[in-house]
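lol forgot to send this yesterday, sorry. struct tokens for the thing we talked abt
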């Protein structure tokens, strides 16, 4: 992936100060998702990262993680597994409570979504403090897949969310922003 392509995507990401609470500089990727060129660049970038890793399942985190996660699953000929807020999944689930930069939350996954034969990439749009993805990682790991990868479209380097994950887990992002 060429840097100028990623710069194109970064240039269309909207910054929203003080959302959802004062002090947060929210990076709104919906502006990149609605731009056809930026969407195609993100799609290709995700595919390039994982095309040779034998991925069998892509887990997308509600809600924006569904966008890149579903695209990636289709491109890799893998299954897509939604990770959702409580009460949204119809079958038996397991769940995890976690801290976010502005409160706590809970996520769930179907109990039968991942098997010990799976190679999984967990995808979300943005890495900030890492709390949501760490909870997702712990849920997926509890299902004993062969391997787990972690992926984001973008990363806020100033929040150092990457430090939350074990050193043996490959964590990737397509691009980053130096600020919080």
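and heres what i got for the seq, position by position
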């Amino acid at each position: 992936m060429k840097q100028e392509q990623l710069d194109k995507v970064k240039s269309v990401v909207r910054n929203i100060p003080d959302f959802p609470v004062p002090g947060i500089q929210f990076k709104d990727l919906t502006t990149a998702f609605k731009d056809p060129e930026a969407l195609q660049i993100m799609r290709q970038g995700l595919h390039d990262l994982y095309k040779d890793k034998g991925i069998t399942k892509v887990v997308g985190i509600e809600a924006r993680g569904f966008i890149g996660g579903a695209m990636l699953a289709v491109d890799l000929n893998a299954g897509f597994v939604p990770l959702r807020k409580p009460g949204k999944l119809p079958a038996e689930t397991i769940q995890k409570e976690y801290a976010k930069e502005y409160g706590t939350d809970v996520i769930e996954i179907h109990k039968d979504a991942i098997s010990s034969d799976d190679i999984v990439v967990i995808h979300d749009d943005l890495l900030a403090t890492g709390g949501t993805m760490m909870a997702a990682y712990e849920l997926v790991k509890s299902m004993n897949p062969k391997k787990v990868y972690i992926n984001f479209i973008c990363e806020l380097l100033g929040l150092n969310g990457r430090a939350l994950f074990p050193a043996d887990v490959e964590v990737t992002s397509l691009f980053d922003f130096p600020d919080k």
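The first helix runs from residue 3 to 12. anyway ping me if u want another try
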